[in-house]
TrEMBL record:
Membrane topology field: Multi-pass membrane protein
Cross-referenced PROSITE patterns: G_PROTEIN_RECEP_F1_1, G_PROTEIN_RECEP_F1_2
GO MF: G protein-coupled receptor activity; olfactory receptor activity
GO cellular component assignments: plasma membrane
Species of origin: Myotis myotis (Greater mouse-eared bat)
PANTHER family reported for this sequence: OLFACTORY RECEPTOR
Residue ranges constituting the G-protein coupled receptors family 1 profile domain according to the UniProt record: 47-296
Cell membrane as UniProt keyword: yes
Protein name (database record): Olfactory receptor
Entries under SUPFAM superfamilies matching the protein: Family A G protein-coupled receptor-like
Spans through the membrane: 31-54, 66-88, 100-126, 203-222, 243-267, 279-298
Length: 316
């Protein structure tokens, strides 16, 4: 829908809504995709809710590492809820109409939750660094007050930046096509629809991506460099194996999440084909949140034991 205003001899066209194409290029498999994404969404909700539940009720999991993991699981639920329900609705209705305000709101929440994930993954890496490299001071350094402050900072720090970023993008004129070749309102496909010079916006995207993706990633790399160095100094092979096992699941999640986010946001407009962009977005908005609970549970003996205890109680 468009509003046309006549001002003198010129026509000004203000876009009032966009159309998300989603997976409309595959009309014969819409219901199959709906079924797949519905199962994936329910799996993400249930598995992350179970992680939150067991970290709250199991005394052995009342540690900073699992406090951060429960917050990460809740963040994952929020993150996927911004995109997947809307995608499911579009698959059912076969319509992708989304108002400008709804599109801006979705983009803002995707950026906020994504930024919070980047920061929280960095906090989790710092927690492992202190636990392995400075174990004697770990209870003092990572006390409950510090943990709450770190989690709060992860949730809140990116809010003003992401709100500002969204406002800047949606203050641009959209006067051409209103069709977004994507399944949600993400920065690269929306920027492609803007008319006029978007150079300043692209620079802003790069700056924010460096602050919220590259800087945290470098901090994680430094943390794991020190962690690996400390692990290799351990004399006990069993101690090395245990230390590696507590870090490996987090490292897998970091590589998957940061890898796809970097490809998306560090080349925002001209270099990325829409098909590839959509595929990469599926990775970090759908596939990785599905894999995260599996990675954290299957590779963690404490969580597996807590799950068995919970299952035993429920089956009595």
């Amino acid at each position: 829908m468009e509003n046309r205003l006549n001002t003198g001899n010129s026509n000004f066209t203000a876009m009032m809504e966009f159309v998300l194409l989603g997976f409309s290029d595959s009309p014969n498999i819409q219901w199959i995709l709906f079924g797949i994404f519905l199962v994936i969404y329910l799996t993400i909700l249930i598995s992350n809710s179970v992680i939150i539940l067991i970290t709250k009720i199991e005394p052995a999991l009342q540690t900073p590492m699992y406090f951060f993991l429960s917050n990460f699981s809740f963040l994952e639920i929020c993150y996927v809820t911004v995109t997947i329900p809307r995608m499911l609705m579009d698959l059912v209705t076969q319509k992708g109409n989304i108002s400008l305000l709804a599109c801006a709101t979705q983009m803002c929440f995707v950026l906020m939750f994504g930024g919070s994930e980047c920061l929280l993954l960095t906090v989790m890496a710092y927690d492992r660094y202190v636990a392995i490299c400075n174990p004697l001071h770990y209870p003092l350094v990572m006390n409950h007050k510090v943990c709450v402050q770190l989690v709060t900072a992860s949730w809140v720090s990116g809010v003003p930046v992401m709100v500002g970023q969204t406002c800047q993008i949606f203050s641009l004129p959209f006067c051409g096509s209103n069709t977004i070749n994507h399944f949600f309102c993400d920065i690269p496909p929306v920027l492609k629809l803007a008319c006029g010079d978007t150079f300043a916006n692209e620079i802003a995207v790069y700056v924010v991506a460096v602050i919220f993706i590259m800087v945290p990633f470098l901090l994680i790399v430094v943390s794991y460099g020190k962690i690996i160095s400390s692990i290799l100094k351990l004399s006990s092979a069993r101690g090395r194996a245990k230390a590696f096992s507590t870090c490996s699941s987090h490292l897998i999640v970091v590589v998957l999440f940061y890898g796809t986010a970097t490809i998306t946001y560090l080349q925002p407009k001209p270099n990325q084909s829409e098909g590839i962009g959509k595929l990469i977005s599926l990775f970090y908005t759908v596939l990785i949140p599905t894999l995260n609970p599996i990675i954290y549970t299957l590779r963690n003996k404490d969580i597996m034991m807590a799950l068995k205890k919970l299952a035993t109680k429920l089956l009595r």
